[in-house]
Amino acid sequence: MHKTWLIIRREYLSRVKKKSFIVITLLIPLLIAGFIALEAFLITGGNKQVLHVAVIDRSGLFKDNLTDGQQIFFSFVDAPDLQSLESQQSADGYDGVLVIPAIQLDHPTGFAYYSAHQLGLGPYEYITGQLNKVIQNRRMIEAGIDKDKLDQMKSDVSLIQPGISAPKGVDTAHITYAATVIGYIAGIFIYFILFFYGMQVMRGVAEEKTNRIAEVLASSVRPFQMMIGKVVGIAGVGLTQFLIWVILAVAAILVIGATVPGLSAHAGQWSEIGQMGTAANPQVAEAMQKAQNLMAALPITRIVLCFLFYFLGGYLFYAALFAAVGSAVDQEMTESQALTVPITLPLVISFFIMFNAIQQPNSPLSVFASIFPLSSPLVMIARVPFGVPGWQLALSAVLLILGIVCTIWLAGRIYRTGILLYGKKVTLKELAKWAVRKG
Amino acid sequence: MESILSIRHLTKAYAAHRAVDDISFDIQRGSIFGLLGPNGAGKTTLLRMITGIFYPDEGEVLFHGKPFNPLKDISKIGYMPEERGLYKKMQIGEQLIYLGQLKEMSLAHARERARFWIDRFDLHQWWNKKVGDLSKGMQQKVQFISTIMHEPELLILDEPFSGLDPLNSNLIKEEIFEMSRKGTTIIFSTHRMEQVEEICKHLVLVNQGVKILDGEIGHIKATFKKHEFRVTLEPEPVGLDRENPVFVVESRKEHTLVIKLKEGRTNNEALSYLMEKGYLICAFEEILPSINEVFITQVERSSRKTSPLPAV
In chain A, what are the helix, strand and coil shares in percent, each to the nearest 5? Predict the structure, then answer.
């Protein structure tokens, strides 16, 4: 046990002390922040393509009835047709010309859009939508339907979900939305963690083998201790990295809270926000109140605990397999490709099932995949925010733990043969043989 | 002398191939023991079973007369495998301390011993350098230190001089002799015969997983002598090979002959014959086979699968 601890310590320190560890640990949050900023920029309209559309309306039905969109602006021009518009040179400054013929209401055809550039799908749908709306309104009038009456008849219902406990003032639709976001983030995060650290384990093992230090170590410690030491040591590196990110995130929130007026007063005291926040900045206070209620509506403690469990469990499950493959690699890392397929394939498949599970958290596939140990680390964490029956969670956890015991045992057997085998290209079949043969 | 290590019917097979096939021998405490064999003879597999890295399919390893317990006894063994290496990116001192600790040394003791040996091999200015920055020869020295720093009772060296220049070879050789004088038992595995003759007292020769020779070097040479002698005579001998009932002349160079006794003849008969012929005998010396010759002939014989074990 003491020796295993020595190995864990070396594996951990040799990685944490490296410059690349610090660089990567700081770089990844920066990249994520940059990515989010880019997304925000795109969504909030830093990337808008504005269309100015000249409209020639020969029917006379549409004038002033087309509503400008956020990115599309209609201008009605006085010209009988496109040629005359062009000859007046008043087409300049427009991105395109919409020509509406003198249509029949029961048979509206012949709309044309002239432009040097093809319309994107969004603008296309917006323009046709506007045209349809005008035509429909006209038809209603023709049919003698009062528009005000029609508006009164319109209905807008929403579902409440009584089984889902939601505090007052929280829309269950918001809960679904928040659960989706948290499910996505947690699932994707675990996916990358498993890959990233699994690969590190594999590379570490392969390095010890190609360095020819494996046999030197094997004369002091059991190969199993070597493998466990590596897997646990790298898990420590992962947790350290994760802890640093959490601290950075909290620090970032505090700094933003302190610098944005109206938030500063409440950064540390969300509970009192109801009484105090309104005075300073009602909108922010309201948003925070909503967020707080939303957090209360989701099983946050359970999500965090499950995240840690599936993060560590999934890592141990897959890292052992990665270690086994690393031990079978000889010299060239490239040949490991074929050997990693049985590990990466279930991971990638789980990744896709995870996306499906967020859409349909209780479909048979989602339920199965969240219990089956190969996929449960990814799929269960995506389901947890939507609420998972206790028995499923328990079964999934027990199976994952059994699975870990299983993969570590199998990997240990492959490892102790592979780590000392040189000059031989190993096939999957041989790996399987090493795993099951006696002795 | 008591045996420090006894190998009893060790067998290990990989699939259909028997890497080690029913090998038994004893190693006396304090001896320098040679394990010889061509490449692929099964030496490394044998050593891995001795060091507890592999479990034998059959047979057992006795350490001080008791079954070898890898967990308990491993720290009393120092093993330098043929496939050896160090962490390239780890500092020398740190690495030696780490490897020492894995051999159950305390941190303080490991540090003290590492310093001692680093100074002894004139490497002190390299203490904080990474192994990757060292020359191959220096890396070998660090490797050697890591093998012996915990002062093992049994030191197992698999091709310890490969990759070393003559100067460093000698340095390591001196340390091996020094440790032997202090009572360390040494197993020396190689296919380099001249090193065996120089270093070992006792040897075992394996080929294709089977033991084909086991004995003291002197005995082995005597067993495989071909009854050849080098004789220097005065005056220059001529015509001795004609109608000679005692020996055959194999070669002649001026005054010196190489003769081979005929079946059933003795040294003394050869000497009497020469004296009767009136020669003055200036030198008379038996030509013993080198271990290299024994090795080659024995390996070839056993490879042809016509190998009755010679009694030694």
Answer: 70, 5, 25
Q: A84 vs A91, A216, A287, CA distance in Å?
A: 9, 90, 54
- How many domains, chain A? 2
Nearest Cα to Cα of residue B232 among B246, B252, B217, B247: B252
Q: Where are the beta strands (DSSP E) in A158-269?
A: none
User: Do the chains contact at A213 and B70, CB–CB below 8 Å?
Assistant: no
CA angle (A313, B53, A417) in 5-degree steps: 55
What is the residue range of A234's domain? 169-238+291-436
Among residues A327, A341, A330, which one has the least CA distance to residue A417? Answer: A327
Give me the interface pTM, i.e. the ipTM.
Answer: 0.79
Query: Looking at the DSSP assignment, which residues form a beta bridge with residue B185?
Result: B154
Residue B55 with chain A: CB contacts under 8 Å: 439
Asked if A182 and A142 sit in the same domain, the reply is: no
Looking only at the bridges linking them, the beta strands covering B280-287 and B228-234 are antiparallel
pLDDT digits (tens, 9 = 90+) for A60-112: 888 878 888 877 888 888 777 777 777 666 567 788 888 888 888 788 888 88
CA angle A147, A149, A154 (to 5 degrees): 95
Q: What are phi and psi of A325, to 5 degrees?
A: -65, -40
Residues 6+ apart with CB under 8 A from A290: A169, A170, A174
Please report residues of A whose CB lies closer than 8 A to that of B48.
215, 420
**Helices of type H across B183-266:** 193-199, 217-223
Question: Is A212's Cβ below 8 Å from some Cβ in B?
Answer: yes
CA distance A331 to A157: 65
Q: What structural domains does chain B harbor?
A: 3-216 (3.40.50.300), 226-287 (3.30.70.1560)
Q: Is the peptide bond before B235 cis (omega within 30 degrees of 0)?
A: yes
Cβ atoms of residues A264 and A258 within 8 Å: yes
Contacts of B187 in chain A (CB under 8 A): none
pLDDT at A359: 86
Q: Which residues pair with B66 in a beta bridge?
A: B63
The tokens describing A1, both together, are 């046990």
State if pTM tops 0.80. Answer: no
- The DSSP code sequence of B56-106 is -SEEEEEETTEE--HHHHGGGEEEE-SS----TTSBHHHHHHHHHHHTT--
CB contact under 8 A, A220 and B102: yes
Residue A113, domain CATH:
3.40.190.10
